[in-house]
Task: inverse folding
């Protein structure tokens, strides 16, 4: 087995977990309230890492950005109500986590999702006992692309950022990983890499 870094950190949505089903269900509940038909899960998949405003823009293109703003709270409430109902690990991720653990290394999560929501997702998909550290978007004063969340994750485990790998699917992940001096990997299994030229 090839050597694995002592610590491997993952972004959550769009990297470790395919949360598009949960987000699509929430968006379609809002569409129903607006007397609009449902949209397929794939329509919002590329918007997952952009947050609620980006997701609503993808799922309800009939409305303007200004019209999306008053819908955000209702969208988030729908999302919280069914959080984890449709979440699944991306293909191959279970084997990756097993390989990390078999090598004696640890893995954790650094997400921009609120920590309480991220923890609920991790619990519902059965990974909580194995996740060495979880940092959410509100765990530290500054979320990604600031490197502080990565520094915090490493500090909690006594890990050296320079010997840590960080994997994420968004430009903010690449920026945070590089600023923290982590070995940074752009995950492209859900879409063509949106990080270029940052990850070139």
Result:
């Amino acid at each position: 087995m090839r050597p694995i870094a002592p610590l491997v950190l993952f972004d959550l949505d769009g990297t470790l977990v395919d949360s598009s089903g949960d987000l699509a269900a929430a968006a379609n509940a809002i569409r129903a309230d607006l007397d609009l038909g449902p949209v397929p899960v794939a329509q919002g998949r590329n918007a997952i890492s952009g947050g609620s405003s980006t997701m609503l823009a993808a799922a309800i293109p009939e409305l303007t950005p200004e019209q999306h703003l008053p819908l955000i709270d209702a969208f988030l409430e729908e999302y919280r109500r069914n959080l984890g109902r449709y979440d699944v690990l991306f293909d191959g991720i279970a084997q990756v986590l097993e390989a990390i653990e078999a090598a004696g290394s640890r893995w954790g999560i650094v997400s921009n999702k609120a920590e309480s929501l991220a923890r609920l997702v991790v619990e519902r998909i059965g990974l909580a006992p194995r996740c060495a550290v979880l940092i959410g978007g509100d765990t530290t004063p500054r979320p990604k692309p600031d490197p502080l969340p990565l520094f915090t994750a490493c500090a909690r485990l006594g890990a050296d950022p320079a010997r840590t790998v960080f994997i994420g699917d968004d430009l903010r992940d690449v920026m945070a990983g590089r600023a923290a001096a982590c070995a940074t990997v752009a995950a492209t299994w859900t879409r063509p890499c949106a990080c270029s030229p940052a990850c070139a």
